[in-house]
Amino acid sequence: MKELLLTMAKALVDYPSQVEIKEVEGERTKILELKVAETDRGKIIGKEGRIIKAIRTIVNAASAKQNKRVSVEIIE
Does this model's pTM top 0.90? Predict the structure, then answer.
C-alpha cells in the first residue's frame, strides 16, 4: 500500500522528492501518514477534497484483498 500511495502522490505534486509516507500499524488497521511540501498540499487534496477521496478509495480497494483496513491521512 505504501508503494501505491507513494507512486500516486509523486505523480500529482511539483516536488516529488519531498513526499514522505509514514506507516502506523494497529491491530486491524494501518494508517498511512502522507506528508508533502506545503505548496503541494492543495494538489493532493483537490477541489472539495475530490483527489484525496479518490486516493483513499483506491488504497482501500487495494487493501481489501489483504483483509486489512488502511487509512490515508495528510500530515501538515
Answer: no
Instruction: Dump the DSSP string for 1-59.
Output: -HHHHHHHHHHH-S-GGG-EEEEEE-SSEEEEEEE--GGGHHHHH-GGGHHHHHHHHHH
Domain count within the chain: 1
Q: Each residue of 15-68: pLDDT tens digit?
A: 999 999 999 998 888 999 999 999 999 999 999 999 999 999 999 999 988 888
Give the CATH number, domain containing residue 59.
3.30.300.20
In this structure, the strands spanning 20-25 and 29-35 are: antiparallel
